Amino acid sequence: MSTPESNAGKLALMLGAILLFCAVVGLILFLASLARGRRADRVTAYLYLAPTLIMLAVGLVYPGLRTIWESFFDAAGKAFIGFGNYETIFTSGDQLTVLGNTVLWVLVTPFVATGVGLLYAILVDKSRFENFAKALIFLPMAISFVGASIIWKFIYEYRPDQGNVKQIGLLNQLLVWVGGSPQQWLVNSPWNTLLLIVVMIWIQAGFAMTVLSAAIKAIPDDIVEAARLDGVTTWGMFRFVTLPAIRPAVVVVLTTIAIAMLKVFDIVRTMTGGQFNTSVIANEFYSQSFRSDNQGLGAALAVLLFVLVIPIVVYNIRQLRRSEAL
Amino acid sequence: MTTTTPATPSVPVKAKDISAAAVAKRKLSSPFASIAAIVIAVLWTVPTFGLLVSSFRPERAIKTTGWWTFFSNPVLTLDNYKAVLDADEGAGLGSYFINSIVITIPSVVIPLTLATIAAYAFAWIRFPGRNFLFLVIFALQVVPLQVTLIPLLTLYVDAGVANTFWTIWLSHAIFGLPLAIYLLHNFMRDIPASLLEAARVDGAGHVSIFFRVLLPLLRPALAAFAIFQFLWVWNDLLVGLVFGGGGDAIAPITVALANLTGTRGTAWHLLSAGAFVSILVPVTIFLFLQRYFVRGLLAGSVKG
Description:
Number of helices of chain A: 13
Structural class of chain B: mainly alpha
Oligomer: heterodimer
Largest interface: A-B, 115 and 118 residues
Radius of gyration of chain B: 26 Å
Order of helices and strands of chain B: HHHHHHHHHHHHH
Shape of chain B: globular
Largest sheet of chain A: none
Distance between the termini of chain A: 60 Å
Radius of gyration of chain A: 26 Å
Strand content of chain A: under 5%
Structural class of chain A: mainly alpha
Largest sheet of chain B: none
């Protein structure tokens, strides 16, 4: 598969697919332009929406409903077992660990990432190196979760503490320098989950910083000026001027990260494979569905993800409505 | 500033300069703030830097000494990159890299185009069911991919297209559509209706209105979504794993790297170089088009 011919073949296939796609879109636009008369607009709109609606119905709505249905069946997808899979999720020891870890991910990551991002946005605001300083924190956003996992796995790398074996992981070397003995960071529960969360905080802080920095810059100058003339302290300025003004942005950042935390499994899968008590719902879904061939349980875990996302989204929308009403 | 005398405008400008400079100065002169900012910046940079340095060190050196010893004993090599790209003696990431390109370009072009015409219909054409359909699409943004994967895979198998690029293209396009339509619709609503009316009075149809009037104005929004989707698809693991994981022929580089971490977790000379091969493209795109990417982020994102 690595011969140049096959690579050329793949690229040719890609070009062909794009041309085919352009032809389909061109046909739709052409057909729509033929529409005449009182209902012309209506026909045009439905033609423009047709590919999207078909794809979403077949690729999102139907599979979603189908998964909900399958979550009530056993591992092979044959026998109806009611809420049996959900019972497993909330009673079996392994699954409870998974739930606990997920809660940790969803609670710790948004708050720490937002805190760091906000602190950094304030610290570098209007400084001479602002753009450069922001790019440093923001860059991890462009790196895949898999790439980030490799970067951090190298930080946590462990070498047995014997004779002349030197540590090659930075964290263990720092520990050795201050006189400690190296640890198997990714094996020791529950700290390993927190160390995986650190990777995600490293990625998400840039997102928080960017959005919050834009919000800080949007605070009207005269408000800041008035507060300063009143002799407000730095902390008072943050507490009574900055924070209330950027509250809607903070809520969006917190909820966006929280939702992403429910769905992401890349870091857990790449760094520990979900071993050593580090699995989360999204990873467990993958393992059950594609490794253990437990279709029913996998479907139930996916549905649980969906159910957990909804309250966060509702909270987000309600907060946005409230801030728009003010 | 209602006064029109030529001397006065310079006064507030000057005053503002002084206050901005004063703020900056106070920030810089506060040692705690500067130190805190530098500590965060260093913490955020060192992990990547360490792996980058390692990717250029000889295999033996990586395995026996920490990357920080590089500065006292600098030896550089490109062997790791040769090994990780080469199919015969290394990980053969080269062909996965091509796979990622083949996957990503249509996965950006298809949802971008379809979302543009759909958003146009939602924004500028009146038709029955418009609000309801838009609300449904808006709501679909929150559906986790996990919910759709297995039935979708079954559909692909039944249709006889399993393990082809078509499944990955279609899946990414489907998953990208709701956010794309939402973003582009919001952007299109902000364009004054008078512009379109003027063109319509001139007898222009929808297609020519779109290309002549809207497209130039939409460019930043299209760029924002394109970059967003590009990074999303290039960095994706889940979709690549589920629909392309079966055969090596179509798997993206993220899947290959994740597998390499699993099977050769201590082959740091391959992992470090491989990670940077995969990081190179998104980081380049990001550095050059940061402006649009930030705009895409600010426009709101509840995707996945």
